[in-house]
Amino acid sequence: MKIVWLLMLLLTSQAFAQQAPKKIKLPNIIREASGLFIEGPDKLWWHNDSGGEPSLYLTDRHGTLIDSLLIKGAVNRDWEDMTVDPNGNWYLGDFGNNRNNRQDLTIYIWKKAEATLDSIRFSYPEQKAFPPPRDQWKYNLEGFFWDNDSLHIFTKNKIGQGNDVTRHYALSDKPGTQQARLVDSCYLKNRVVTAAAMSHDGEEIALVAYTFGTVLGFIPRAAATLYVWSDYPPGKYFQGTMRAYRLCSWPLPTQFECVDFWDDDTVIVASEATLWQPARARRVKLR
Description:
The strands form five sheets. A five-stranded mixed beta sheet has the order 6-7-8-9-13, with no helix packed on it. Strands 1-21-20-19 form a four-stranded antiparallel beta sheet. It has a four-stranded antiparallel beta sheet with strand order 2-3-4-5. The two termini are 29 Å apart. It has one helix at 2-16; strands spanning 23-25, 33-40, 43-48, 55-59, 65-70, 79-84, 89-94, 106-111, 116-123, 140-147, 150-156, 165-172, 176-179, 181-187, 192-198, 204-215, 219-230, 241-250, 256-263, 266-271, 280-285. The chain contains one helix and 21 strands. The chain is mainly beta. The protein has a single domain, classed as Neuraminidase (6 Propeller), CATH 2.120.10.
């Protein structure tokens, strides 16, 4: 099944590899773009961050809204990413945890074809307090992807905490209550991870990471980087070769929250709307 799915994705990616858009302006209904799944050249699925409807939004590659789907039975407390497996299971990560105090971390499992919903509830075995002391706020989460019957999640530390480590945990993709299993960690200087994706052929992973601060105490400054790993042992992504692509270093705050592979040479990254600019996406060429 996985081989057939990969062949289909590769054929699809070859068919529209040259059509990846340079820029996409997203509709106002996707102001807090936080999750992206590229199903085809004109089928880009998005979801918002927190506090709104538990819905997915479909646009074409130009950002025109085509459809929206309400996920009945789900709650959007803090949706941060989504991923899809070869069997048609969509995984929606309601696991944003800015205050490190959640005890209801959830990944919804939605079968799109059947419109059925299940879930994974999980916790971190190392976390004993909710919240822990502020210098141990390392249990936020904004990025994950599916690979080989597992969900791979990448934690986000608190900006400015001085410990810019993302931890790679793994979960079974089966519904139920679980404890996340720590696999590895990686230090990304002055960056916290906000999105994750795996290439169609499984040969590369991508993490988006950013930081935000001020200059002279009042001038806002943001920076973001796309990190790509390749040539890794199975499931040990941080043991591979890393490449970095600067996304921005602007005086105006820009929070990149989405990433997915358009094809095996291109990714699409997207940022939330701000007071200065709408939610938007852009192409990043890897080769």
